[in-house]
Specification:
This protein is of the alpha/beta class. It has helices at residues 50-61, 81-89, 106-116, 130-137, 142-155, 175-185, 211-221, 286-290, 295-307, 327-330; strands spanning 7-8, 14-15, 17-21, 67-71, 96-101, 120-124, 161-166, 188-193, 224-226, 237-241, 247-251, 264-267, 272-274, 283-284. Strand 7 (161-166), helix 6 (175-185) and strand 8 (188-193) form a beta-alpha-beta unit. The protein binds S-adenosylmethionine.
Length: 332
């Protein structure tokens, strides 16, 4: 294991991307993510404070992390998120600082997040139909999500990416309408395969819409071609419209895993480092942080965790068991 330099794992991958979850709570209850009620929330005293998060981020940036994405749960439900953004931006002017959000609260926060130093947002939106939104997210909030997107655009949080989980029987017929809408709005759409990361363990292959099907639905109406010089670290396979109308991505975690290119680690809201979305083990940093660990000790902990990063997930393996935590408690 290298004792200096960037964060390298035993497979030779360099970790550059840190996803930080600031809460496991959410103001939606998307069917592919959470049960309608009865979520086991993390105890509040276990959540890292903004100071603890900023300390870890400072250490990680010193180890070659080039991008930090704030996520959750729904990160904008944590009070004063702009304060954390300002603390992170103060660490370094040049790294890529982004936010993944359902957009519901962006109408009231986009300007302050931008002013605090946020670079860009990914907004999750699975449908443009109000009733469908309610069916998928179990809340009647489509108008708020769209207002949030408009506010992000106005605030200059570019490029704006829109994440859409595609599920059979729910929204697979909206692939083309969503693509047309995103093109017209100037958003980069990313279709995501449904992963076995829901708390209620309702994932099934029958409901999964594979990347190949998403691409053939798209290509049938909007001619596309692969982007030749796409970022190899991106989880999305990128395509571009042949008429020059922008790009569209597909995140095919299940049917075409990209683990050999994975450059990510995650920090859960309760201070556990996860080196794979599907990992069963975690590396506790909250304990050391709260018990006086030095920066060097935290560095050692991060290096050890990354060195042991899983070579890949095993969704296709018959013995696959989903992790104990669902997506919202891991940080998507
Ligand atoms: N609340 C924020 C949001 O909506 O973007 C951030 C957290 S959310 C867990 C991050 C992303 O994970 C969203 O795009 C959501 O649609 C996606 N997601 C949640 N559960 C998923 C699952 N089981 N499979 C695939 N994507 C999932």
């Amino acid at each position: 294991m290298p004792a200096i330099g960037t964060l390298e794992d035993s497979q030779g991958r360099i970790v550059r991307d840190l996803r930080i979850s600031v809460t496991d709570r959410c103001n939606l209850r998307c069917i592919y993510c959470m049960p309608h009620e009865g979520m086991p929330w993390l105890p509040r005293e276990d959540l890292l404070t903004y100071e603890e998060i900023a300390r870890l981020a400072r250490i990680a940036l010193g180890l070659g992390i080039a991008g930090i994405r704030l996520t959750g749960g729904e990160p904008t439900t944590r009070a004063d998120l702009h304060v954390l953004v300002r603390m992170l931006r103060a660490l370094h002017p040049g790294f890529d600082l982004s936010l993944t959000t359902n957009g519901l609260k962006l109408a009231g926060t986009a300007d302050s997040l931008r002013a605090a130093g946020l670079d860009r947002v990914n907004v999750s939106l699975d449908t443009l139909d109000r009733e469908r939104f309610q069916r998928i997210a179990r809340r009647d909030r489509l108008a708020d999500a769209l207002a949030g997107l408009a506010a992000a655009k106005h605030a200059g949080l570019h490029p704006i990416k829109v994440n859409t989980v595609v599920m059979r029987g729910f929204n697979e017929d909206e692939v083309v309408p969503l693509a047309r809408w995103a093109r017209a709005e100037g958003f980069q759409l990313r279709f995501i395969e449904w992963m076995p990361l829901d708390f209620q363990r309702s994932w099934s292959r029958d409901r999964l819409v594979p990347a190949d099907e998403i691409l053939s639905r798209l290509g049938a109406e909007l001619p596309i071609e692969p982007v030749p010089d796409a970022d190899p670290g991106s989880p999305a396979a990128l395509w571009r419209y042949r008429d020059g109308g922008g790009q569209v991505g597909v995140v095919s975690s299940v049917t075409r895993p990209f683990c050999e290119r994975c450059d990510r680690i995650r920090l859960t809201a309760d201070g556990q480092v996860r080196t794979c979305l599907f990992a069963h083990g975690e590396h506790d940093v909250r304990g050391p942080l709260r018990h006086g660990a030095t920066d060097d000790e935290i560095v050692g902990l991060l290096r050890t965790a990354v060195w042991r990063k899983e070579p890949g997930h095993r969704i296709a393996d018959p013995s696959f068991e989903p992790p104990e935590r669902g997506m919202s408690a891991i940080g998507g």
